[in-house]
Design goal:
Its EC number is 3.1.3.48. With about 160 residues, the protein is an alpha/beta fold. Helices cover about 40% and strands about 15% of the residues. The mean pLDDT is about 95.
Length: about 160
């Protein structure tokens, strides 16, 4: 099973979601059965670590994002991952526009797994510190829901 989180530049929202979901998988004993990654639609930050504000907010909750490096979405991601989860509607539209016709991966908004099917994870980049806390709250809720979905699929495949 493979999960890819997608935002605009891969330095705030998607690396936070990657880190949070990794922790949920570890706590559930599933880290060795699910591959997790993140990427951005754009290439502005390729190779850079997550935003320092995202790393600080995540660290306050016990998440270490320091080893992550931004990368851009690749066409091969559509075949490699089972889930490509967008942080907002623009990211989802970009995924849908690039999706190959034969791709079987699930494309959708990440917050659908928190029971918020039409809600976007707001981009905290130009905001204050509270925005990063809000992102963490939202991705934690969605990570719990995604974990349940993934557990169910892994049990079906067993």
């Amino acid at each position: 099973m493979r999960v890819l989180f997608v935002c605009l530049g891969n330095i705030c929202r998607s690396p936070t979601a990657e880190g949070m979901f990794r922790r949920h998988l570890e706590e559930a004993g599933l880290a060795d059965r699910v591959e997790v990654d993140s990427c951005g639609i754009g290439d502005w930050h390729v190779g850079k670590a997550p935003d320092p504000r995202a790393r600080t907010a995540a660290a306050a909750r016990g998440l270490d994002l320091g080893d992550q490096r931004a990368r851009r979405l690749e066409n091969t991601d559509f075949a490699r991952f089972d889930y490509l989860l967008a942080m907002d509607h623009d990211n989802l539209a970009a995924l849908e526009a690039r999706r190959p016709v034969d791709a079987e991966a699930h494309l959708g908004l990440f917050l659908a797994f928190a029971g918020l099917p039409d809600r976007a994870v707001p981009d905290p980049y130009y905001g204050g510190e509270r925005g990063f806390e809000e992102v963490l709250d939202l991705v934690e809720a969605a990570s719990r829901g995604l974990l349940e979905e993934v557990k169910g699929r892994l049990e079906e495949d067993a």
